[in-house]
Amino acid sequence: MTQEHLIVEKSGPVLSLTLNRPESLNAFSPEMIIGLTSAIRDAQADADVQVIILSGAGRAFSAGGDVKTMGQADPAQAYEHIGKLNELILTMKATEKPIIAAVHGFAAGAGFNLALACDLIAAAEDSKFALSFSQVGLVSDGGGSYFLPRLIGPHLAKEFFLSAEPISAQRLYGLGVINFLFPLEKLQEGTTKLVLKLAHGPGKAFGKQKKLIDHSFTATLEEILEEERLTQTLMVQTEDHQEGIAAFKDKRKPIFKGK
Q: Helix or strand or coil: residue 64?
């Protein structure tokens, strides 16, 4: 299904979301942000969907905010627009389905932050990233101020934000920001293999593990230990757990159903 500025495609357990404003390097629009939020919420409610892949059409992943419309919005409009972006980021983090960003070309500003909000990032070797907010006299939006320091520490995060210089995919891979690096011509193939592996894994366990890791940054050890205990009490009752045990005993590969 093609919405305005967003292509939504479901193939078995995989939901593909493609940012579709190639003429503007997939710069964000209100329609794109609202469409992403709606599609991810629908995926959470769809038991058949096990994994979500996010990519961009054309020459880039996303240039982030649309420079052509910057300076036209009054403070109230900016506040409302960023509120919709915040809703998207919170929806992504609340969704108990792995979200994989497949980045090629360029990911800048909030486009970079959108990738950071995903659970894993696969990128083309020649892709570039930049936190370009300061070049237009702005601060980060889309959660970059939260996500990036937790990955690389505050000093390096400040360098990237203040300098606004392009950052190579190789450097971010070395820092652990990017999980998988592929030649551009292999990005789709490599990401598809990763996505299919996750799609046929224990979906409920993946979703709960995602929540535990994300919560660990704001919780105490005692809180996480108790959350693990309560979650595991639920997980031992799942079909996937029983299948995993049976497969181990039978010395075969498990066939998970995400149930």
A: coil
| Bridge partner list, 107 | 62, 129
For residue 104, which of 14, 2, 189 has the smallest C-alpha distance? 189
Predicted TM-score of the model (pTM): 0.93
Each residue's pLDDT expressed in tens, for the chain with a length of 259 residues: 557 899 999 999 999 999 999 999 999 999 999 999 999 999 999 999 999 999 999 999 999 987 666 666 788 988 998 999 999 999 999 999 999 999 999 999 999 999 999 999 999 999 999 999 998 888 999 999 999 999 999 999 999 999 999 999 999 999 999 999 999 999 999 999 999 999 999 999 999 999 999 999 999 999 999 999 999 999 999 999 999 999 999 999 999 988 8
| Residues linked to residue 6 through DSSP beta bridges, in sequence order | 3, 19
